[in-house]
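User: Please predict the structure of the protein below. I'd like the answer in structure-token form so I can feed it into my own downstream comparison script.

Assistant: Understood. Taking the following sequence of 405 residues as input:
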Amino acid sequence: MAEEVHIIARVLASPQEVDANAWNGLLALQSHPTPFLRHEYLTALHESGSATPQRGWTPRFMTLWDGDALIAACPLYLKSHSYGEYVFDWAWANAYEQHGVPYYPKATIAVPFTPVPGTRLLARDEESRTLLVQAVCQWCESQDVSSVHVLFASGDDVKTSADEGLMLRHTVQFHWKNEPPASASSQGALEGKDTPARYASFDDFLASLAQDKRKKIRQERRRVAEAGVTFRWSRGADIRTADWDFFYRCYERTYLEHGNPPYLTRDFFARMAGTMPEAWLLFIAEKEGYPIASSLIALGDDGTDGLVAYGRYWGALERVDCLHFEACYYQPLQWCIAHGAARFEGGAQGEHKMARALLPVQASSAHWIAHPAFAEAVERFLEREGQGVEGYLEELQGRSPFRHV
């Protein structure tokens, strides 16, 4: 007689209530892991005061257990607003308000302030992932939570969510691949390689671009160099405390210039330096021997392509023409080529990234709406929006920055 399996769901008020090794071990099994879902990262968000109930992020991490074994988990937050998510549902909230129905609290399964696609539903297998989605929706319904939003989800997350009746929403991001445009279909196939060719140098990358794009990038880089700006980079434990301090001044300035306080505290980055130093790459721009700007890149292994770089934060204390492009794109791309990184994810928004060979990709989220009438309305909205996103993606894909071979 088969042994009966009892799966227990536990809702946790802090990531610290689950063992770090168990959480990270589950993350390592996923098809699309990122450093942002590591236990250390999520814990730092809370312990540093960056993502807390006082700031509208109340953790209710859903976990499933088979005895003492963690078999599924997700970072669920009850939200009292929609800031820091980058999948915009303000119109939905307004519609609820106009009809006298509360939209908040809602449940968001996401990494706070981090629009990076990747696994959100940690699970040892497909069955466990299905049980996790069911447990989340059942718990939210029992708590009178208006909705569930799985943001920037992996392909596995999207499939399971759709199978369980969640509605899908798509947006567009821009990613760069360390792969000459003809390599996957021609050179790799001819040489019998499983992995595509990589760019040999930044000049090799430039040579793959259309003449006007190549000329523009060289002009932009020349302006920065002629302004007397040079760059240095540090990775991991080599990033000095003074450099972290300077970076935070730049990061804070970027937010304050737009009239907002920064999402992340200085203590968050101190915790990153202490617990996840290997995940960070810092570029600092200097002029006449003094630092004037910086950009921070996250690094991780996505389990498929190898090393991946994620553009995250930047800021400048002095204005120099084209400095943003140099700090946020050209320096990171040059580093990626030199160190064999497979991909650089430039993040959300910004068609200007295409001129720098960051190509459009689809990013997806999944949504469950408790109220039947609003669920129907959102479904119709998403169908119309999805058609627009599909057309927009096709239009962008027809505007290749690469030269014709």
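That's the full token string. The longest helix spans residues 372-397.
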